[in-house]
Amino acid sequence: TFIMKKNWWKILAALIILYTIIAGFLFKVPAQPILHETIRNVYFHVPMWFAMIVICLVSFIYSIIYLNKSTIKNDIIAAEAAHTGMLFGILGLITGSIWAKYTWGAWWVADMKLNGAAATMLIYLAYFILRGSIEDEQKRARISAVYNIFAFVMLNVFIMILPRLSDSLHPGNGGNPGFSNYDMDNTMRMV
Fold first, then answer.
1. Is residue 174 a contact partner of residue 164, using CB atoms and an 8 Å limit?
2. 46, 99 in Cβ contact below 8 A?
3. What is the pTM of this model?
4. Predicted confidence band at 36 (pLDDT cuts at 50, 70, 90)?
5. 85 Cβ neighbours under 8 A, 6+ residues apart
């Protein structure tokens, strides 16, 4: 029972993820023109981007903390959060590309949000290359923290700000209506 009391949130999280996967593939979804069954990707694609943004925010915060209190633990948390965030970003790009193929007819289209997401991935890739190129631990941590702050700011510019200033195929951007009561039903919201 001690293990259950200590790890209840992990068990709950695993059950919620299992529920989401099963419901995402099996529950009924609204029939929408163009989207059809691909609307199920809302269950996977969108949460991956939200997870990436939140995890990169954690990385950003720990980079700031590192610059204030130069402990290697803070640098490690910032770096590993960036790695995890990029995993979610890559999965977001993959699920988005699959969705684009069935919705827009191409694996990749000239869309500001897609190109911004790709630019963000490249900026974080440069962060990892930078980290790997500096041998001195303290110097690597300090330079990486500064670059990581820059990377997170650019993530917000490329994913949240610029797509809202131009036309976009993505729902809720550039005059394109977002998912609404018409598109989603209560079953989808529950998942």
1. yes
2. no
3. 0.81
4. low
5. 51, 52, 53, 55, 56, 58, 59, 124
**What is the Cα–Cα distance from 48 to 101, expressed in whole angstroms?**
18
Closest to 123 in 3D by CA, of 150, 163, 143: 150
CA dist., res. 54 & res. 82, Å (int): 10
**61-115, pLDDT tens digit by residue?**
999 999 999 899 999 999 999 999 999 999 999 988 988 888 788 888 888 888 9
- Torsion-angle region of 179 (φ positive above 0: left; ψ -120 to 50: alpha; else: beta): beta
Instruction: Report the distance separating Cα 141 and Cα 68, nearest Å.
Output: 12
Nearest to 85 by CA among 93, 1, 114: 93
HSE (CB half, 13 Å, CA atoms) of 77?
16
Nearest of 89, 164, 139, 144 to residue 119 by alpha carbon:
89
Using the structure block, give the residue that is written with the tokens 């809202």. Answer: 164
Tokens encoding 17 = 């993820």
Residue 36 vs residues 40, 92, 187: alpha-carbon distances, Å: 9, 20, 16
Residue 167: strand, helix, or coil: coil
